[in-house]
Structure formats: structure tokens, C-alpha cells
Amino acid sequence: MPKLVLVRHGQSVWNLQNRFTGWVDVPLTEKGKEEAYKAGELLKDIRFTVAYTSALTRAQETLKIILETIGLYIPVIKDQALNERHYGALQGLNKDRAREKWGAEIVHLWRRSYDIPPPEGESLKDTAARTIPFLERAILGDIIDGHDVLVVAHGNSLRSIVMYLEKLSPEEIIKVEIPTGTPIVYELDEKCNVVSKEIRNLTE
After folding, report:
1. Is 84 marked active-site?
2. What number does CATH give the domain 3-199?
3. What is the CA radius of gyration of the chain?
4. Active site residue: 9, 35, 122, 147, which one?
């Protein structure tokens, strides 16, 4: 049964600094590189034949480390559809300073609601509107053809994929957290329904 594995990129410099990152292209920290290496170690039993990532460096760098750790040289497809949610006017801001500027309640609403975007940015609903068509068109096409597929992307683009695969409601998905560098392994049937799910913890 084909596997679809989702991995959020390792810790980035702006994750460490508690800043809204979005589409700003920032590199991994040393911890982020180590998380990517550990993810690769945890995925050595899966023989991926294709990988997908976003147009952003932190995801591409994570994927590169994972594949090097496994010892795989496979096609890599990069697409902006898998980019992180665009945080608009919040991008680059420290999250505490954003709360001081707009108030904790409104910032929490922008971060955690399903369909309320920050100024000039995307909501999770907007992110899903570009991620899910790409998932259906490209990634699940490989699954249907029997390939094991690795997707390395971002917290919110992956949350939209999790929402689709697990048939979660908007109320359910806003409670879902996806840790950096932690592989989520799905087995899918021929109709791309989830048969099993395993979270491979980096500390194991």
C-alpha cells in the first residue's frame, strides 16, 4: 500500500526568534538541520520514488538533508502551491510585538481561525485553496500510481493537507499542531483514503 509522508521543515531562524515567517525566505538553524537529519534516520525504511516541496529554502534544505540521510536520489518537484501561509502585514514581526500592536485577541484570531486572514495575508482557508488542488492533481496522482511520496513543506500548507486526508472540520483543524521535522506517515488505499497514520517522534 503506498505511503504519503508529510514533514514540516526543521526549525528556521525566524521560528527561533518567534517571528511570523510566511513567504519570507529564511534558512534553517543548526537545530533545524539536526531535526532534518533525524527525520531522515526515521524514514530509512521507506523507498520514496518522488518528493515534493515548496518554493522556499527552509523546506528545500530540509528535504535535501532528509534524502541525503536516507541515501536517495529521486525526482524533486518544487511548487509555490506548497508554500507556507502568507502572513501579509505580520511577516517579519515578532509575535509578542504583534500582540502589543493589535491586541492578543485579534492576533490569536488571525493565527488560529480558519477563514479570517491577517491584513494583506492568507487565512488557512486561502492556503488550502491553492494547496489542495495541487495535492489532488499531482501528489495523489503519484499515490494512485503506487509510489511512496515524501512531501516537505510548512505548518499551514501541511495542515490543509491533513484536513483533507483526515476529513477534519474547520473547527478540528485549527487545533492541530504540526511540529518541525516530525514525520507523519500515512498509508493510503487505491482511492486515497487513509488506512493508517503513524507519527514518528524525533525523540524516540
Report:
1. yes
2. 3.40.50.1240
3. 16
4. 9
- From the list 95, 115, 75, 82, the residue with the least C-alpha distance to 8 is 82
Tell me the residue ranges of DSSP E strands in 40-181. 50-53, 76-78, 149-153
| Residue list, annotated binding site for substrate | 8-15, 21-22, 58, 84-87, 95, 111-112, 155-156
36, 180 Cβ separation under 8 angstroms: no
9 is annotated as an active-site residue: yes
Which pLDDT tens digit goes with each residue over 57-102?
Answer: 999 999 999 999 999 999 999 999 999 999 999 999 999 999 999 9
Please tell me the pTM assigned to this model: 0.95
d(C-alpha 22, C-alpha 40), whole Å: 25
Task: Give the active site residue among 61, 84, 122, 147.
Answer: 84
pLDDT in tens, 145-190: 999 999 999 999 999 999 999 999 999 998 899 999 999 999 999 8
Paired with 186 in beta bridges are 4, 197
